[in-house]
User: What shape does this take?
Amino acid sequence: MFTGIIQALGTIKKLDNRGNDIRLTVSSSTLDMSDVALGDSIATNGVCLTVTDMGPDYYCADVSAETIKLTGFAHYSAGSTVNLEKAMRPSDRLGGHIVSGHVDGVGQVTQIIKHKDYVEFWVKAPDALAKYIAHKGSITVDGISLTVNEVNGAEFMLWIIPHTLQETIMGSYKVGTAVNLEVDVIARYLERLMLGDKAAEPTSKGIDMAFLAENGFLKK
Assistant: This one.
C-alpha cells in the first residue's frame, strides 16, 4: 500500500528481456534503501514492483508481460526517469490517499497550460475509467496522488504547483506523454457495493443505465 507522495526520482539503468517478461534495474541516489529488504514493494511510476535484488543505490524487479501491456512500461527505456515510493508503514502519515500500486490504465497528456503560479495539465483517460473520475476526487498519475480540478468526459484537469513539478517527473511531461493511472479505490468498491446481490451473478457486467433505472436510481 502507498500514499502517492513521491519520495525520490530514479533512473532506469537496464531493461533485460527474459522471454515475455523483463528484469528492470532502477538506480537512485536519493531513495533511502537502508530499510528495504528483498521482497519489499516499491512503486515505480505508480506500479507496485517487488524487489528481487538490490544494492545501496539500486534495486531490481521482474515485470510481467501483463504489467507491460497494462502500464506505460511499454514506453520506457534505459535512461527514463521514474517516480519512486516505498510501501507505507502503519506509522506513516497518509499525506496523499490510499494507493494500491495496481494501475487501471494508461492515459495521455493532451494539454499543458502554464499559469503564473501553477501549470494546468489535461489528461485523457481510457473511456472505461471515466466513470471513476470525479471533480475534486483523487487520482494517481504515475504514482502521484493528485486532486482532479475539472472533468470533461474522459478528460480531466490537474493544477500542479512548482514543488510537484520539481520533485516528480511531471516537469518533463509533454503533450502526448503516456501516464499510468490508478483511480480512487473507494470508487471501485462503491461500484461493486451498488450491485448488491447481483454481484454474485457470474454474468453481471457491472453498473449501466439499465441497472440504475431497474433499481430506482433514475427518475422515469
